[in-house]
């Protein structure tokens, strides 16, 4: 078995951040992915970061840390580009109380019918998740991590109840520690060793529109429309999945979102869809293995990006199996074999 080696399965933004932080602790890291970095769920993330004023959600402790953690990353990675635009929400979109403003028209001058009052979180931000993933992967490689793409993980290699590596289409990669950051793919990998994870698909659709630059200034969230704009003019608008199964159905949904956007912003009449929308979002489990010491919980805001704190927790104490965006845990397989945790002195 490789000495203190770690294999991270999944090179999305979570796996990339794990590889970066683990390599920063001097651990030999191999990051593998079936495709290219950021080509899975990360590619379709709305990438909204922020924290609620108050919340009893299990994800709240991580969201409280989000802004500080991203500020830290900005100091470590000078090329990291985060748009600190703030957010506006109204009509019950945000169930948690927050600071209010009656100056929505000044913050969003192109909004045709601004509400009298909206929740304003000026510290909220967003970024390009694929660009940030590539940046983290490059930084991880600069710290000595290896990247293997086009290499699907097919199973976990285990002996005598201990996971000892990852089976891939190119063979077995031995490791002292295996970290799973493969989204819903983690479920299948864990089921092969008798572990059931409460990670369920929760699809939505991310519509991409092309509009005039500067049309949307902040992150806008109301029940009928949720949008933010990128520096190149692209408008991102997540919307609920209603069973769309083909290109035509996706385009009809995209046009409905485009029409709502055009009706909400002055100068948005010539907005066009610039790419076929795709299903995004999934629910990630936060907590320990079900039926063990601590109950799992679900992240109810999958369109938001949880703090990078969640991604560097394993750099402090790496478990033998870590589902994406979970707290470290120890558990037993259905056969009762202990999954041996890794050395916690990174």
Task: Describe this structure in a few short sentences.
This protein has helices spanning 13-24, 60-76, 104-107, 129-142, 185-191, 247-264, 309-316; strands at 6-9, 29-32, 48-49, 82-83, 87-89, 100-101, 118-121, 125-127, 146-148, 153-159, 162-168, 171-174, 177-180, 201-210, 219-222, 225-229, 234-240, 272-282, 285-286, 297-298. It is of the alpha+beta class.
Q: Write down the CATH class of the largest domain.
A: Alpha Beta
The helix content is: 10-25%
Rounded to the nearest angstrom, the radius of gyration is 21 Å
Q: What would you call the shape?
A: elongated
- Biggest sheet, in brief? 8 strands, mixed
The CATH architecture of the largest domain can be named as 3-Layer(bba) Sandwich
In the CATH hierarchy, what is the superfamily of the largest domain? FAD/NAD(P)-binding domain
Tally of distinct domains: 2
Give the end-to-end Cα distance, rounded to a whole number of Å. Answer: 17 Å
Order the strands across the largest sheet as they lie in space.
6-7-5-15-16-17-14-18
**Could you please say which CATH topology of the largest domain applies here?**
FAD/NAD(P)-binding domain
Q: Helical region count?
A: 7
Q: Would you identify the regions where 5 or more consecutive residues have pLDDT less than 50? A: 279-303, 313-346
Arithmetic mean pLDDT: 79
Strand and helix order: EHEEHEEEHEEHEEEEEHEEEEHEEEH
Which percent band covers the strand fraction? Answer: 25-35%
Number of strands: 20
The chain-level structural class is alpha+beta
């Amino acid at each position: 078995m490789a000495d203190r080696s770690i294999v991270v399965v999944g090179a999305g933004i979570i796996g990339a951040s794990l590889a970066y932080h683990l390599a920063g602790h001097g651990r030999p890291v191999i990051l593998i992915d079936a495709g290219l970095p950021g080509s899975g769920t990360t590619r379709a993330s709305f990438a909204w970061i922020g924290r609620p004023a108050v919340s009893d959600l299990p994800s709240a402790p991580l969201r409280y840390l989000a802004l500080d953690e991203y500020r830290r990353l900005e100091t470590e990675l000078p090329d990291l580009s985060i748009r600190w635009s703030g957010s506006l929400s109204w009509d019950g979109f945000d169930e948690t109380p927050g600071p209010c403003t009656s100056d929505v028209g000044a913050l969003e001058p192109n909004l045709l019918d601004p509400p009298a009052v909206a929740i304003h979180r000026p510290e909220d931000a967003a970024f390009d998740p694929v660009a940030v993933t590539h940046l983290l992967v490059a930084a991880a490689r600069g710290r000595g991590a290896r990247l293997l793409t086009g290499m699907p993980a097919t199973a976990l290699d285990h002996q005598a109840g201990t996971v000892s590596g990852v089976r891939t289409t190119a063979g077995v990669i031995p490791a002292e520690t295996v970290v799973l950051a493969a989204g819903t793919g983690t479920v299948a990998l864990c089921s092969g060793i008798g572990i059931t994870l409460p990670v369920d698909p929760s699809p939505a659709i991310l519509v991409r529109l092309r509009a005039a630059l500067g049309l949307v200034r902040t992150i806008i969230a109301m029940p009928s429309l949720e949008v933010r704009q990128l520096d190149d003019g692209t408008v991102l608008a997540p919307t609920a999945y209603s069973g769309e199964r083909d290109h035509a159905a996706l385009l009809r949904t995209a046009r409905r979102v485009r029409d709502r956007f055009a009706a909400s912003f002055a100068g948005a009449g010539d907005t066009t869809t610039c790419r076929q929308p795709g299903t995004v979002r999934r629910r990630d489990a936060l907590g320990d293995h079900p039926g063990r010491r601590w109950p799992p919980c679900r992240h109810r805001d999958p369109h938001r990006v949880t703090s990078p704190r969640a991604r560097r927790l394993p750099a402090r104490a790496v478990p033998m199996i870590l589902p994406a965006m979970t707290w470290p845990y120890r558990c037993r397989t259905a056969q009762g074999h202990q999954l041996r945790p890794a050395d916690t002195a990174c």
